[in-house]
Every structure is written in C-alpha cells, then in structure tokens.
Amino acid sequence: MSRRWLVRGIAPVLCAALALWLAPALALRFVLPGLAARAGASLESSGVWPALPLGVAAGRLRVAREGHELELSDVRAVLLPGGPRLDARVADGTLLVRSDGFSGESGFVRIQGVAIESLSTVLAAPLALRGQADGVWRFGSAASVEGTVTRGAIQLTSPVPFELPFAQLLISAARDPASRDWDVRWVDLQGVQLAGSAQGRIGADGALALRAQIRQLEEPVRSFFGLMQLPTAPLPVEIGLDGTLAQPRLTATAPPDGR
C-alpha cells in the first residue's frame, strides 16, 4: 500500500519535471512562430530537442523579416544560474548572447567572423555596410559597442551608387542613457584607397552627425570625392558624414564638434 502511494506521489512530480524540461522545445516549435508572425516576421526551425539542464537545441533556425533573413545553425539556448545563454553559428561565424540575471534587461552579444549584412533581419535599422564583423555589444542602461569589420565597404547611394572599400574598420561607441543617442568615441578606417578617422554622434533614430578626417585618398575614391565636390587636398582633409545608417551622405562642411 505504501509503495502504491509512493508511486502516486512521485508520478505527478516526474510529469511536472518532464513538462518543464520539454517546455522550451515545445515553445520554439509551436509558440514562437506565431509570435514572430504577429511581429511581421517568420520563424522556422528544425532538429529541435530539449537541452540540459533546462533549455532547447536546434539544428537550424531561420528568421525572416522584410525581405531579409538570418539563418542560425547548432543553436543552443539554456538557463544557467547567472541567466540565459544562447550559442549559435552564423555561416562560418559564431554568435553568443548572455543575459545578466533572468530579467534580460542587460547583458552582451558577441559575434565572431559574422557577415554584418546577415544581421539586417535583427537590427533596428539597416546598415549601409558590409564585411566580416567581430565585436561585443553590451545592452542595458550602460550600452556600448566595440568591434571591427574587415574586408568590407561602406555603400553610398547619392549622387551615384558607390562603394568605399576598406581593409579594416574599428569602432567604439557608448549610448547616452538620457537621449538614447550614441556617442561615437572613435571610428578608424584603413584601406588602400581611403583611410581616416571620425568622431561624433549617431541619433537614436539612426541619424548621423560625424566629423571625419581623411589622411589617405587614392583613385578611384579621389575622383568620387571630386564628383561630390568634396575637398581632396592637401591631406588631411576634413569632411562631414550625415544622413542615416541606411543612407549615409558625405558633405564638404563638417558639423561643429560632430553634432
């Protein structure tokens, strides 16, 4: 009799533990696609299994929105004592997301060897930039970003489509908690045709207000500067960078103090 009561007592606990263990996988497979659809996106997954101690693993996860898509592989999201952690591969690169605690209000995102244009699906604003990115974005009240983009280009559209190629771009910026604007402490761009640095601000809406100093200028970028009626000599020359992150624009007159 006591054994029967013991089994009856343990069975509900085991069922509850099993349900809790399966919950993340079931949510990814059946609940999250509906939530993504309500937000104007689509979410597809395959090879979904529960992960220890409490989480979910997926062989492939595809997120699509507004004509852009991000495909992750070897996805693993688990709850750890310090907070949630997500690891995934993005093509040949890696993605790591960690939250400080369980509120999700702060933490960091680290990418290594990821094509930055592949992140357009999850970015708040599109970037007129391509290349391989490595860096850390810390989110929360003290948000900041530091990283590099290599073997890439800045894509301009006005007055004619043109790409400013570079070998390496370095950036360090921090967000003002009050205005939500980004204070760009420095940007350094190094390439054969163009090299320079910039400082200023990026608005919360993606508006650019940067002052750039060009220290190296070679063809065909020099001719493009001439077409834009930008100064080309004597080096270094100073120009402005305004417009938006999606449509940056070079100007002959730099804004005072990068604002």
The helix-strand sequence is HEEEEEEEEEEEEEHEE
According to DSSP, the number of beta strands is 15
Tally the structural domains: 2
Biggest sheet architecture: 15 strands, antiparallel
Strand % is: over 45%
Tally of helical runs? 2
Roughly how many Å apart are the termini? 80 Å
Average of the residue pLDDT scores: 81
Computed over alpha carbons, the radius of gyration is 24 Å
Q: What is the share of helical residues?
A: 10-25%
Task: Label the structural class.
Answer: alpha+beta
Unreliable stretches, pLDDT < 50, 5 or more residues? 5-9, 11-21
Q: How would you sum up the global shape?
A: elongated
Give a brief outline of the structure:
With 259 residues, the protein is of the alpha+beta class. The chain is 17% helix and 52% strand.
Overview of the structural elements:
This protein folds into two domains: 1-115, no CATH class; 123-259. The chain is built from two helices and 15 strands. The protein has helices at 2-38, 221-227; strands spanning 41-46, 49-51, 55-65, 68-80, 83-90, 93-99, 107-115, 129-139, 144-156, 162-175, 182-190, 194-202, 208-217, 237-243, 248-251. It starts with a helix and ends in an 8-residue tail after the last strand. The model is unreliable at 5-9 and 11-21 (pLDDT under 50).
Which terms would index this structure?
single chain, 259 residues, alpha+beta, 2 domains, 15-stranded antiparallel β-sheet, 17% helix, elongated
Topology of this protein?
Blueprint (H helix, E strand, L loop, with lengths): L1 H37 L2 E6 L2 E3 L3 E11 L2 E13 L2 E8 L2 E7 L7 E9 L13 E11 L4 E13 L5 E14 L6 E9 L3 E9 L5 E10 L3 H7 L9 E7 L4 E4 L8
Antiparallel strand pairs: 1-3, 2-3, 3-4, 4-5, 5-6, 6-7, 7-8, 8-9, 9-10, 10-11, 11-12, 12-13, 13-14, 14-15
